[in-house]
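tool=predict chain=A
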Amino acid sequence: MALVLRALIDAAGQGGSFRKRKVEALVRRIYGLFMVFLAWGGACNYVAAADPIHIVVMIEPQRYFVQQLGGDHVAVTVLVPPGADAHTFEPKPQVLIQASQARVYVAMGIPEEEAWLPRLKAIRPDIPLVHQDQGISKMPMETRDEIHRQQPSSAARTSHGGHPEADHHHHQGMDPHIWLSPKLARIQAETIGRALCSVDPANAGDYEMRLGAFQQRIDDLDQRLTKVFDHLRKHRSFLVVHPSWGYFARDYHLKQIPLETEGKEPTAADLVNVVRRTAAESIPVILVEPQFSQRFARLVAQESGIRMMVADPLAFDWEANLWEVGQRLADHLSQQP
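tool=predict ok
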C-alpha cells in the first residue's frame, strides 16, 4: 500500500508542484482512511474472538460451578431468581425463549425441571443439554417415617450406560440436591468441564486446567469438613424443614430429620412426634432455608428449646457457603451435652 501511494506522488510531481500538493493531500486522506479501516477490522475480529459462550443454568450454585470452570470464556444466565424455590419454579414463555438462545443448557435434574424441559426443546430442538447429574446414583428423599434407613457413607458413581437412571428420568422421591455433597460435586465439575471442552475445543486446555484446580479445592473443602465433624462424639442428628441436606449428611456421617415429606407440611401429630424425638435424642438445632416458611420450625424450636440456623442450599458462593454451614452446624452439635 505504501509503495503504491509513493508512486502516485512521484507521478504527480511530473505535472507541477500545485498538482503534486493536491495529490499528496489526497494520498494522506486515503492512507488515513485505510489505517482506520485496518484498526476497526482488527477490533471487530478481537471482539468476535472474545465473545463468551452463553450458558443457561437453573440455580445459582450451578452458575458458580460453570464460572469456576469457564472463567472469562463463559457468560452464565440463571433461570431461578434469588429467593425463589427451585422446586416450584415455572419459567414464563419469554424466559424459555431466552434460554433457547443459549449455546448450552446445564440441566440440574430436579423433577420439576424435567416437566418443562420438553417446552424448551420444542422451541429449539437442537439445543445442547448437559445433564449435571450424569453418572451419579441418587438416593431416595428422606422422610419422617424412613429417617432411620441406612445410607452408604461414600458417594457412589456409576457409568452412564449402566445406571437405571441413565436416561435422566428420576423416580418420584429421589433426592435431587446433589450439589450439596462435595464428594458428588467433584463428579459434577468433571461433567461440566468436559462439556465445555466439547463445545469450545479451542480453549480446552484452559478448561482442563480450571477443572483440575477446582477439583483440588473441592477435595480440600471435603477434607476440612471431615475434620470439623470428626470430633463429634455423640450428637450427629439435626432437624430440617425441607430435606435438602441428605447428601451433605451422608458425606459426614450425620442424620437429618425432616419436618416435611415430599413437600407436604407436617400435621399437628407430626409436630408433637418431632418435639418428643428432639427431646429424646437431644437434638440441638433445626436448619431453615430462606426459600421456605419458617413457621413450623419456630413452633418446634419454641416447644423444644432448640436453636434455629439458616442454611441456604441455593447460595451462589458454593465453597464458602458449605464451609460456613459445616462450621456452624458442627458448633451447634458439639455444644449439646
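The chain has three domains: 2-49, 52-224, 232-334. The first helix runs from residue 2 to 13.
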